[in-house]
Amino acid sequence: MREGGRRLSDPNFSFHFSDTDGEISDRHSDFSGNEPVGSPMMKSPWNPGTPWTMASLDEDSSCPKNTLVGSLVREEGHIYSLAASGDLLYTGSDSKNIRVWKNMQEFSAFKSNSGLVKAIIVSGEKIFTGHHDGRVRVWKASSKNPSHYHRVGTFPSVFGVFGVSIRPIHRKHTAVWIKHSDVISCLSLDQEVGLLYSGSWDRTFKVWKMSTSKCVESVKAHDDAVNSVISTVEGFVFTGSADGSVKVWKREGKGRKSLKHIYVKTLLNQESAVTALTVSKNGSFVYSGTSDGIVNFWERENQLAHGGLLNGHKLAVLCLSAAGSLVFSGSADKMICVWKREGLIHTCMSVLTGHSGPVKCLAVVREMESTTARRWKVYSGSLDKSIKVWSVSELAPVMQQMTVVQNGSQVRSAKY
User: What is the CATH number of the domain that holds 351?
Assistant: First the structure.
């Protein structure tokens, strides 16, 4: 997606709602400027409707259904990030607050004076948050009072930045090398090797050793903002960018001096910005969402060959998540498409509607009381300042009307 000859980054919307429609403005990813620029999506109606219709259920009450469980609303800012762990939900917004929810009620909150929270990820007892100031902060609940959270670390630490500013460890290991110079847009974990990945609008992704809080590598990955980074099996890392590309990297080595990520290949190269990535649990499928409303996917077992594309949205895909045989795509059209995968075939089995603004983030966990029925609890965060909670079953009926592009069976709308 380009404006005035320059590519737009991951949509970071600011808008005002009216009774009928709204306006969207993109934040350009060039980190030397802060002014918003226009977007082709501004020309699209806020409520375009949906082409989907539910298949007849023949009044079968025993048939699993996808339902809205409830909404969590606190009028303090647009929701930019979500992370779910057990019965806890963590939400980040442009209010600088990270809120913790439990059983549909606010459980706790903690605050960082560093701008909006663009990314949250949970590892054991620690919560990692990515911030507007280019730093990652680490939080932990008190052992005496689980509802009280305190900060236990920062990547990089002030001391670390100051130290390399005075005496660089290596000619390239400067303060710029170990600290992002723009917004952190995404986080990913490789818990087996204890590494945290952070992607930024400064066009790099950085690799952090969680045990030492030190940056062990900085990779200039793209020509525009890095909007998504995913660490997956066998040391593979995928990055998606506003430059319209999805790239594959392979981790080699283990120690700080020997660890490095080698460029493998480019999966996608097009005009529309890549706004989201996700992988299936076993890493067999890689999915990317783009600003033209398309979801592409690739098969790892077939040397990352392109498997097809899913066309279910009218506006930009802003977030993706995968769980079991399902893939969830949230969009600026205010809808969430639920895709069911059977082999290489992806079917849109449901569309979740209810948000009055773009769906910016998703988090999915298995419903604890439904270990055999393959039901998932889906959290969706929106720029309408709300979080909605859905119950989704892999056994729910499939919709009658759907748009699925499989193995190039339809003309592709993206250039690559």
Answer: 2.130.10.10
